[in-house]
Amino acid sequence: xxxxxxxxxxSKLRYRDNDLIIKCYTEHYGVLSFLxxxxxxxxxxxNKTAYFQLLSQLQLVxxxxxxxxxxxxxxxxxxxxxxxxxxxxxxxxxVMFLSEVLSNALKEEEKNETLxxxxxxxxxxxxxxxxxSNFHLLFLLNLTKYLGFYPxxxxxxxxxxxxxxxxxxxxxxxxxxxxxxxxxxLKTLLGMKFDTLTSIKLNVKQRQxxxxxxxxxxxxxxxxxxxxxxxxxxxQVFN
Length: 239
What we know:
Blueprint: E1 2-15, E2 19-26, E3 30-36, E4 57-63, E5 72-80, H1 89-105, H2 113-128, H3 135-147, E6 160-162, E7 167-169, E8 177-178, H4 180-189, H5 204-221, H6 231-237
Antiparallel strand pairs: 1-2, 1-4, 2-3, 4-5, 6-7, 6-8
Helix pairs in contact: 1-6, 2-3, 3-5, 4-5
């Protein structure tokens, strides 16, 4: 069946000499992988590797076959042309990190247009803004809404947050309770809009500490989630 869908590139892997396998989150079909024959040697039409940079937003005409692990693209074009996401070194490091998180977290071939819209609009926000050092923290926290483990907002007055159960508590009931600065930042970010992120002032140590908390939160709730290899690069760039 020939169909059209918007897609966001999550990962790419060289296959043989001139082929690429790319994984995308699509608006209509969830996670799909595609085999691009000869994309690394051809200069025409579809076969432009620049189209398939991490987190690129594309419009795909594809031959969709539900039972195939690798789909076929007939035509691809850029849906949103970024102005800085791939050219700014700091943003590129964040793109590498976020794409790895998404590739790990989004496993199922399930349609979720609300999630797709969230990814689409937040990446455009990141592309357009110059103050984004805390972007990934709110991005990851909000992503948990669509993955099914957004923190319960009851009992915000409590002194601990249980990462394993996703709720606030008066006393820690396991080894995964956070308190102190990380708890304050979590409460601050809950319900915050990206446009007000500049009001939060964090040093490198605080930012990295909360990011580690968020990654642990993902690990506890997503069985096969692994800490991104690109985390070290991200921490170095934002040091």
